[in-house]
Design brief:
mainly alpha; two-stranded antiparallel sheet; 137 residues; 2 domains
Length: 137
């Protein structure tokens, strides 16, 4: 009887729809790169600023426990699974943007225009800066 039950089970398995077999054998779909929107980016930056105001002292980089905490809070906030590496890379991007802003503000002839919230350069300083930037690339 055991052999008959085994044969019946095999026959039922062969009669199963092919979509089940294909779905089981198909590899998991890998998502593309993460797209940060203003909402999630602002959330991360506000959380990191809150950590700084609470007394965290980063020495050029944030501690792993702080980045892990922000990644977990972001998952709770948005529902999307974010790895600490993604959060850390996003912070690196913002650090690079901020360093560019500081570099522009330190140029002679650079002024802050509060009406448009932008750094303004005189005409000749702007042209000189653009020439230097293009030559160094």
């Amino acid at each position: 009887m055991a052999a008959a039950e085994l044969i019946a089970e095999v026959l039922r398995a062969e009669a199963a729809p092919a979509t089940d077999v294909v779905a089981a054998a198909a590899p998991a779909v890998v998502a593309g790169p993460m797209r940060w929107n203003n909402n999630t980016s602002g959330f991360v930056l506000r959380r990191m600023a809150q950590l700084l105001s609470d007394g965290t002292r980063p020495n050029k980089v944030f501690k792993d426990k702080d980045v892990n905490h922000v990644a977990k809070c972001l998952k709770d906030y948005s529902g999307d699974a974010m790895s600490p590496t993604q959060v850390y890379n996003h912070l690196r991007k913002w650090r690079q943007k901020l360093s560019r802003i500081y570099k522009l503000k330190d140029l002679s002839g650079a002024l802050w225009d509060s009406d448009v919230n932008a750094i303004m350069l005189d005409g000749e300083h702007y042209l000189g800066h653009c020439k230097v930037e293009h030559l160094s690339c």
